[in-house]
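Students often ask why inverse folding is considered easier than folding. One informal answer: many sequences map to the same fold, so there is more than one right answer. In these notes we will look at a single instance of the problem. The structure comes first.
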């Protein structure tokens, strides 16, 4: 853990402001629930299992929120990264 928040912010910015870093961050957003609901859609689960699943998903999502906070990104930056990520996936044929 960083002792000085400004040092953490600098390292995160150095990492995620590169083209590769933006692509990795967009992938993390896509795969860890940033762009979807954390509410479990699995109806076959009992209430406790649904609650645990939702808590797990929310924990994944909070990691992305921490990264975005350290980057000091708002909605415009996030939208650009996600848009570019989708275009890159389409160009590579890496989409479902």
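Output (designed amino acids):
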């Amino acid at each position: 853990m960083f002792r000085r928040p400004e040092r953490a912010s600098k390292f995160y910015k150095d990492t995620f402001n590169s083209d590769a870093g933006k692509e990795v961050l967009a992938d993390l957003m896509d795969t860890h629930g940033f762009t979807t609901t954390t509410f479990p859609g699995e109806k076959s689960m009992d209430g406790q299992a649904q609650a645990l699943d939702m808590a797990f998903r929310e924990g994944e999502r909070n990691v992305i929120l921490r990264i975005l906070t350290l980057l000091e990104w708002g909605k415009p930056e996030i939208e650009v990264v996600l848009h570019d990520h989708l275009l890159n996936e389409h160009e590579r044929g890496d989409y479902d």
